[in-house]
Amino acid sequence: MARRVPSPTTRRLSLYLRVLAELSEAGESTVSSRELAATCDLNPSQVRKDLAHFGGFGKRGVGYEVSELREVIAKILGVDRTQRVVIVGAGNLGTALGDYQGFDGRSFEIVALFDVSDDKVGTRTRSGRPVLHVNELERTVREQEVALGIVAVPAASAQRVVDQLAAAGLRAILNFAPVRPVAPPEVTVQSVDLKVELESLTSLLAERSAPPPDPDAD
Amino acid sequence: MARRVPSPTTRRLSLYLRVLAELSEAGESTVSSRELAATCDLNPSQVRKDLAHFGGFGKRGVGYEVSELREVIAKILGVDRTQRVVIVGAGNLGTALGDYQGFDGRSFEIVALFDVSDDKVGTRTRSGRPVLHVNELERTVREQEVALGIVAVPAASAQRVVDQLAAAGLRAILNFAPVRPVAPPEVTVQSVDLKVELESLTSLLAERSAPPPDPDAD
DNA sequence: ATTTGTGAACGCATTCACAGCT
DNA sequence: AGCTGTGAATGCGTTCACAAAT
């Protein structure tokens, strides 16, 4: 009983949800797989396959009802209610994430940031999130029913922080440190590695400027 | 003549490179596909396939020479020389990225940040990167031979900024705004979407707490 | 004995093509 | 006619298994 929904599908659902919010804003009541696909730069079949995973709520000849689809996807993604989030690491990146406008507060609420530095503990971020000491992490997670942890500490501390978050009971962690921390199987760690992103771009540049002789030259 | 190297491979090369740097630091002179795979949590065959894309420089019975492999991968990824980077958007995220320690300056150098706000233009980030007006973007890119652009502006401005970066001659853009900007085919835009990352995690939580009745129940 | 390099097998995800509703 | 839902086909990436090399 592994993952019911393939992960590429889940990630696209997130895109659909955003588009649906905009359509809803614009007063559209239905949308076709073709439209949805066009705005997300995808194949219409892809969209239909993705949505069909959860049973058919499209109307043939018409399309999908925006508000219904929106609710269903929000539920699948777990953002039908506000998810509380803690951030460990109140450095530049941590505080930036804490104040990030993209998490509009309806689906994700940053409860607090955590750090060990005396300079930072006791302060607040620009938008008013408190910075607490890491030894308050477990209590905060428990009392405020936090579901998600974000790791924004240097590589050297990341594994320890992941252990602490796991010990505090979190099952889902987003890691920004440039390492692949290990975690018990019930804890999912997803990494965003900025250097990998940049290097995957520079590799394209390198390959364009020097199209190398390919090994199989027959 | 599309992409010579599959993109998943490129991303793993980036991981290998980091491990190789550590091995080099630790004084190791050779490494096997098995070791490399273990530290990256991958299959040894995967590692060998990845490395074989560029012709065999492994020694059978021994493994790969750390320093040689490191140089080769660095070259493939285009980080055998310093790549200059500009960041558009000097808000929380932009400045955090500008000061990010993970880009150690050897492979990536943040040349400047750009913004349109009078409050920000003329200032410097904590680590001393200048914040310039966006209308200086093109000149800076040209004069300093900048290769990469990072977009750290709100969703509403992202498309315009991508257009400006493309017009300035950049061919590779890393976008943090929650939109999929369009760009001419010679310009590669790669997006890091924080909300997608978070929602792909919460979807796991949602699916665990409520394992729904699957449609195909025969 | 050990480890690479690689064809073959496998599995997963995307795309196609069309039957089935509205 | 228009659009969804889906089996079939395709393509791609990963893993297996083993021959070749040191």
Overall spatial form of chain A:
globular
Across the major sheet of chain A, the strand order is 6-5-4-7-8-9
Distance between the termini of chain A: 47 Å
Helix content of chain A: 40-55%
Main β-sheet description of chain A: 6 strands, parallel
The parts of chain A where pLDDT drops under 50 for at least 5 residues are 212-218
Number of helices, counting only DSSP H or I runs of 4 residues or more of chain A: 8
Brief summary:
By secondary structure, the first copy, chain A, is an alpha/beta fold. Chain A contains 8 helices and 9 strands.
Layout of secondary structure:
The structure is a homodimer of 218-residue chains.
Chain A lengths: L6 H19 L4 E2 L1 H8 L3 H9 L5 E2 L3 E3 H11 L6 E6 L3 H7 L9 E8 L15 E3 L3 H7 L4 E4 L3 H13 L4 E4 L12 E4 L2 H16 L9
Parallel strand pairs in A: 4-5, 4-7, 5-6, 7-8, 8-9
Antiparallel strand pairs in A: 1-3, 2-3
Helix pairs in contact in A: 1-4, 2-3
Chain A binds a DNA duplex (22 and 22 nucleotides) through helix 3 and strand 2.
Give a verbal description of the structure.
2 copies of one chain form a homodimer. By secondary structure, chain A is α/β, with parallel strands linked by helices. Chain A is built from 8 helices and 9 strands. Chain A has helices spanning 7-25, 33-40, 44-52, 66-76, 92-98, 137-143, 155-167, 194-209; strands spanning 30-31, 58-59, 63-65, 83-88, 108-115, 131-133, 148-151, 172-175, 188-191. Chain A has a 6-stranded parallel beta sheet, sandwiched between helices. In chain A, strand 7 (148-151), helix 7 (155-167) and strand 8 (172-175) form a beta-alpha-beta unit. The radius of gyration of chain A is 21 Å and the shape is globular. Chain A binds a DNA duplex (22 and 22 nucleotides) through residues 6, 8-9, 32-34, 42-46, 48-49, 51-52, 56, 58-64.
